[in-house]
Specification:
The protein has 16 helices and 20 strands. It is of the alpha/beta class. It has 3 domains: 2-100, Rossmann fold, CATH 3.40.50.720; 104-311, Mur-like, catalytic domain (UDP-N-acetylmuramoyl-L-alanine:D-glutamate ligase), CATH 3.40.1190; 320-454, Protein-Tyrosine Phosphatase, Chain A (Alpha-Beta Complex), CATH 3.90.190.
Amino acid sequence: MERLGRDLAGKTVGVVGIGVSNTPVIAMLAKMGISVTAFDKRPESELGDPGKALRALGVRLFCGPDYMEHLEGDWIIKTPGLRFDHPALERARAKGSLITSEMELFFEYCPATIIGVTGSDGKTTTTSLIFEMLKRTGRKVHLGGNIGYPLLCRLGEIQAEDLVVAELSSFQLQTMRRSPHIAVITNLSPNHLDVHKDMAEYCEAKAHIFQFQGKEGVLILNADNEITASFAARAPGRVRLFSFRGDPGVPGAFYREGAIYLRREDGTHQKIINRSQLLLRGDHNVENFMAAALAAVDYCAPEKMAQVAETFGGVRHRMEFIREVEGVRFFNDSIGSSPTRTIATLLSFDQKVRLIAGGYDKKIPFDQLGKMIPDRVEKLYLCGATAGKIRDAVQKHAPAFPMEIYQDLKTAIETAYQESAPGDIVLLSPACASFDQFKNFEERGDYFVSVVKELR
């Protein structure tokens, strides 16, 4: 933190976006005596107490539709979702501003070993599993990135001997020029194509998680995913593979005959745990556990990994059991913001479910999901901007499949319950982002939970 303070001394800083991740950073910089200006597209009146608190710290605010027209600062910290080539950033860059981000600054100044996790699906669960495994070693471990509190604000607490586990999105990675010491890519499939120009740009953004590693770096890849497997040839350092389909023949982890194994550098195998002992359900969570084990294996004994597997029940909004009403079970999978994630969730149930889906359009095709739904879903309850697209994708494979479009999520939930019989499962797994109706997937999941808890 002292080095960051020295480098910022006498400089002005502009921060774009007064959201959950940037607000603590703005406050931290202001308390360090830095001249900070914050920019946000919302009117200042909508910022509420956080905006007032920043004003009280001496932060200048530019808010409203033309907020980017005022962009300035020796250093500009952009919000992750803002494209690096936005015209206002290009103008500032041409004037000599350093364009950076909270995560880029953290990687620059962090003294500890960093383990980074990215992928289209499974990031948060894998990150959380690694964190739980490492905590059992007695080391001090810090969790952050795209999950939890901004890591930059915790620089002062982090020592060289600590470990950091960071979840990293494609938006965070796209402009980064440093990679974590250990990098994990869970899988890759089309996602965020409403922001990225195409799938190629999305994949290259993800590749930044390992691209700047040295020879001592470790890259952990899903051998069963064509895109991630192809990254092995580009790795500057060591590669470990995990596979649900069997031994990949190189150092890594694999699933075979109901158990999860480590494959050591010398070719020997070591069993970690039987699948039946995992508290998490679903093939995708077997993959998440293997990825986590490979990230933690240099620090954590397999016996401690097994202890985590037997006790870790998952993260909120991820196949979260809410309650049973009159024999009908309700599950919240609001994190299901892409078709591949919803497919993985559907495969985790041993019966057909009543699926609630639809939401914000990220320009991702629903063909694969549409093909699977008739085999895994009893009835489809659609709402949101993508309702028509999902309906059309299903009708290509099953023209008479039972489904209906509803005006809002509440009506879809209540109708699904009314049409259910004892033993049925009602699942929220939208296959889409939430921005058409909610601030984020957490708000959507919380709303689902609140409606379900009112059912009688």
